[in-house]
Every structure is written in structure tokens, then in C-alpha cells.
């Protein structure tokens, strides 16, 4: 069967977008609002429009509601979609992480129902991975799922799940066997966020952002059909999620539709601060701006190079951790220079408004987020040292030991 | 380094390595005496036979590149020679050729000089720095005063690489019509060349004085003026110089990092290899990340200069400022991890550090290139 040529697809997309999708308004940073449910509703409506127009789920297989086309088609669509409102909120984690993982490892029923509903704009997904006691030790999950006849009973707590409050389903990693070493006793479940016993709270970050959530599971009953992959094989499913997450963060996911990120983080670039405060003529400021522009570009160049090197097998997939470190460094420099250039004005706004310099200050409060999210810098350095450079592994007392014997807290 | 090389590029690299090992080694660089020539003309001529001066020159002018992308081939060669901190006029000859080729077809004809340089029969170098001055090629302090059908050059330059062995000098000078460049024999009356100390043991630099030097109008390269005249040609020369520097420094970093990583496996203290200490693993991980970034930005700059598009200037300044900024701390970190051995004359690390100090400093410091980035971004 022949598929539509990219140029033909691009032409149809251009015409359809012009006739159906709303144009984006000006590029002002979105204010942080307490209740953003209308934004999620709007994203669902935009996704429904894409689906009705035949442009949703471009790279997902036809049998699960997608178009079965290639990354090049998605790329062409992304280029054409510039300047139009797109359901960017749904890209991560729904389309770029959860749906591809189900596609790789879910049951036929899970793929047909959940991926299809997401593509139709009816459902949103999230990830229940990290735990309050876990930190960097992701596989040290203590949320438990105990068998009860042909059901499982889920209890425990999760944290740092992005936009779980807006989601319908979550991929939840839980321990089903405590007698085997930690990576072996895990199972992934597909959990309805509205199941009895599920409580979701939003976490307020220092910049006012409330995208992250914490969840409590109190004896949530799950049918056997909720298992993703095999019982006891949850770490493999989680690894696949992490792989898709890295691809998405590196800009390499074919399941991401539209360009750019949803505007949810306040902040100001050094260039914006210099312009707003009229400091672009100061040679000292210009030098800092040059440093900022250079590192930004180097981070992009390195991302492109390492991605190609991993694809070509020149570097191992773990080399992506170098990009994680470099991206964090570029982010730190952006915040540091914004504060530096704002000078004596960084701590106060313009009347009641925080102004550009205030945005720089708020952004700075969240500076370390780039070194914490998706695994800490310290974990990335271990990965580069041990998996890329082949240096000896850190001693781990929990390796090869039944998980119930592993020490937890003091 | 490029991720994948064609068979021709691999051969180009292997042949360069062969000739390099025949004549030069790190031990030889270490033992070089003041005033001793750093390289022989015969050796350079043999290098030219392997294509060391041909990459930027079109075939009809006696050149040619193995991949058809001369700038990338030149970067490859600079890495190969740079990894051994090789002596030789790779940078000055190719930079002058870049200028002559860029200006070809405007102003006086220099076909014969291009052909002789590409064949390795002649050596040329770029005299651009005013004595003691920072990078400011558009404000030369050597003057070229028009007199009956020619010019008189007055003033001085310093940091002129390999001027002591050069046949031709490419001089950036001020004329009443703006900046201009002149290609003159080094032996012209009124030109005096004196050696200048340098930190890099395998390089030689000179101060060059011009006292009422009379030159014909035929020595002009291209046309005076900033745009599109000499300014465009000088920009091209800078771009080639910076790509060569970034490539050789990245190769130096690659080698120093490899030595240091191996050292952490071999060296034991308190009964365990240095590589097993997490504090050191993390430092090596950061260095490895910086190294990858240096490769990436150098490769991107070489590709942009090859394409000669509007982003070439920016790419070059991104790479030159980044590699310059990263190279010295990275090499000092290598020294630190080697312990006291790292600051001994017998160890190779100082040879690398010397080259990195030199290449960071000339053809624009990181600061110069950051300011250029701000200019190029129209901020």
C-alpha cells in the first residue's frame, strides 16, 4: 500500500489549518492562574478539531486511531502548524510518553481504547512513577499492588506527576513481589484517576506553578486487565517510558504534534531583561549576552550531534545524560545572567507588576529545576561516568537482595 | 570529530598521521630549542603533496579537497595535526589561501601565488595584529599611502606566525579608501622580521616592521573597503583561522581527556583506582560533556563556513568563544587529576596547555567573540 507523499500531505495540512484552526495570539507570557481547567478543556477541543480534520495521531497506527504515517509527515505538519493554536498541553506526557509506551507494551485492548481516546481528544494520560521516599532511586518503589483473587489492590503514594490533576488515566509503577531484588518485583498498571481510593493534590512550586501533583492510593481495586506488559516486568515498561521521555525532551519524538512548549513557566531571558532595562549598549552586558547566546547554541548543536551519534551507534543511549547536564547548565546560565543584567532592579517590580526583572527573579527561584527534573544532575553524572566512560559502579547494598530486606529510612 | 568519515577522508587522515609521525613527536616538540626552526620546508612540501594546502583552493587554481567540502577536510586535518601539537604553517598558509581565493576575480590577479602555495612550494602568513593590540582587524595601524601607481607601507605588526620562514606576507593595512590587504614578498626592501617569544613550543611568531616599503598596485588583494571589499575577505580569513584553531584545540582536549581517564583507571590510592571515587567520576563526566560540546560546536562551525551562508560568522564566534572558554579549565582539571606529575616538564600535558593558551588568545578571545555575537544578533 502506498502512503501519501509528504508534499501532498503538507499541502492538505496547510489548507486545512488555514480553514479550521485558530491563529495564535501575541507571544506574551501566560499569567499563572489558580484555575487552568479552561486551558485543558481548550486543548481537548483543539485535539477534537485535529481528529475531525484527519490530522490527529499522525505517527500512530491506523488500527489504534492514528494515521499510520511517518515522522517526516509529522515534521511537515509541525512546520505548517506554526502560527496556529495547537493542543501542546497534550504532547507530554500523553502523546510523547504514555501512548508510545502503551503502543510498545500494552495489551490490544489498552492500545485500542486508551490511545484511540487520546487521539480523539477524549482522554489525557499521566505517569505515576516517583515516590515521596524515592528521589533518584526510581526503582525503589514502595507503592504496593497485592493480588486479591483476580484483582490487585493498590496502596501507596506517588509524587511529581506532571498534570495528573487534568488526566483521566495514569501509568502507575507498583511493587507486586517483595521477595526478589528491587528491579524484578515491579509491575506497571493503568489506573483510572477517578477510581475509588485515588486522591490527587496539586503541588504549588516557588514560582506559583501548580503543574505537579502528589497522589495517594488507598486500597484501589484494579482488574488484571490493568497490567501493562507482564506482572513482574514493570521496570522494563518504566524504562521504555523513560526512553520516550528523553526522546521527547530532546525534541526527537515523532508523536509530538505542533511546535514549542505550552507557556506555563514564567521567567525572562537575559536578552529580554537587557532590552527592557535599556542596557544593551553596555559592553559588559553585551559580553554577557554573547556568552548566553553562545551556550544556548552550543547546547542545541550538542543535542543534534549526540542524538545522531546514538542513532548511528557511535555513542551508547546513556550518552543522552550529557545533554541533560548541558541543558541544565545552559538553563542555569540563562537565569544567572538575567539576574546579573537586571542588576539593582532585580528584587523589585514596576508598581504592583513584577515587570521583566521580576520575572527574571521568579525564574531564578526555580533555577535548580533544570538540575532536578527527569533525574538529578548527580544521577546524570553517575550515568556518564559509569555507562559512557566505563568507570566502576557505585557500591549499592540493595543490589541482588530481596527488596523486603532493603533498608528504608532510619 | 565528524561522526562518520568517507574512505577518502580516512585515507587523508591516515596519510597525514604517517607524515607527522615520520618527522614530529611530542618528545621532539618538548626538546625544541629557542631559535631553532620548528619545521622544515621539505616536510611542508610533502604535506602539500598530501593536500594540506589544497583544501580551500578550487581545482582550476591547483587545489582540490578529498570530500568536495574543503573546510571540513581542513578541520579534519587540523584535528589530526593538533592532537600532536604539530608544528607547521597549516594555519597561516590556509588562511592566506582562503583570502586569496575569496578575493580571486576582484582586483589584481594572484593565480601564480595561489598555485605555488597550494603546491607547498611557497609559504605565506597573515600579518594582522597591531603591536600589542587586541583583535581589531578593521582598524589596522599599518598605513598604505598611495604613491605613483603603488603604495608605501609604514608601521608594524606582531604575532605573525612563521614569518621567519615565509616567502609572502599578507598585510592588513589602512588606505585612504578603507582597509586593504597586500600580498608582498617577505624580502621586500624595508621589511624587517624579528623573532617574538611564544608560550607554544612548536609555534614560532615574529614582529614585522614596515619602513617606507614601496609596493606595486599589483600587490593589492581584492579591493579596499569594508563591504564587500577587503572586509569580506578578512572575515573569511578569520573564519578559517578560527575553524582550524577550534579543531586543533578540540583534538588536544580529546587527547588530554583520554590520557586523564586512563590515568584514573591505572592509578590506585588507598587500595582502589581513582576512577572508583564518585567525586572524580563526576568531574570526568562534566569534562566528557564539555568535550562533546566542543566537538559539536567545532563541527557545526566547519559546516557553516563550508556552506558560507549568513550564519557562518555566528557559528564561528559561538565555537571560538566556547572552545576558548572551556579549553583552559578542562586542561587544568586534567593537570589536577594527574597530581604533581601534571606540572612536570616531562609530562605531555603542558604541551597541550601551551597550544590551548595560544589558540584561545589569538584571532579573537572569547570576550571578542561574545561581543561579536551580540553585534551579529543586532542587540
From TrEMBL, chain A:
Record-annotated Acyl-CoA dehydrogenase/oxidase C-terminal domain positions: 232-389
Entry keyword annotation includes rRNA-binding: no
What is its cofactor? Answer: FAD
One Pfam family name is Acyl-CoA_dh_M
Keywords in alphabetical order: FAD, Flavoprotein, Oxidoreductase
Which stretches are annotated as coiled coil? none
Q: Where is the Acyl-CoA oxidase/dehydrogenase middle domain?
A: 126-220
Please report the stretch or stretches of sequence annotated as the Acyl-CoA dehydrogenase/oxidase N-terminal domain: 30-122
Task: Show the InterPro entries listed in the entry.
Answer: Acyl-CoA_Oxase/DH_mid-dom (IPR006091), Acyl-CoA_Oxase/DH_mid-dom_sf (IPR046373), AcylCo_DH-like_C (IPR036250), AcylCo_DH/oxidase_C (IPR009075), AcylCoA_DH/ox_N (IPR013786), AcylCoA_DH/ox_N_sf (IPR037069), AcylCoA_DH/oxidase_NM_dom_sf (IPR009100), Mycobact_Acyl-CoA_DH (IPR052161)
Give the domain of life: Bacteria
Q: Which family does it belong to?
A: Belongs to the acyl-CoA dehydrogenase family.
Q: What is this protein called?
A: Acyl-CoA dehydrogenase family protein
From TrEMBL, chain B:
Domain of life, per UniProt, equals Bacteria
> Sorted alphabetically, which SUPFAM superfamilies does this protein's record hold?
Acyl-CoA dehydrogenase C-terminal domain-like (SSF47203), Acyl-CoA dehydrogenase NM domain-like (SSF56645)
* Domain Acyl-CoA dehydrogenase/oxidase N-terminal per the UniProt entry, residue ranges: 6-105
The Acyl-CoA dehydrogenase/oxidase C-terminal domain sits at 232-369
Q: Which UniProt keywords apply?
A: FAD, Flavoprotein, Oxidoreductase
Question: Which cofactor does this sequence's record say it needs?
Answer: FAD
- A Pfam family found in this protein is Acyl-CoA_dh_1
Q: Which residues form a coiled coil?
A: none
Family to which this protein belongs? Belongs to the acyl-CoA dehydrogenase family.
Q: Under which name does UniProt file this protein?
A: Acyl-CoA dehydrogenase family protein
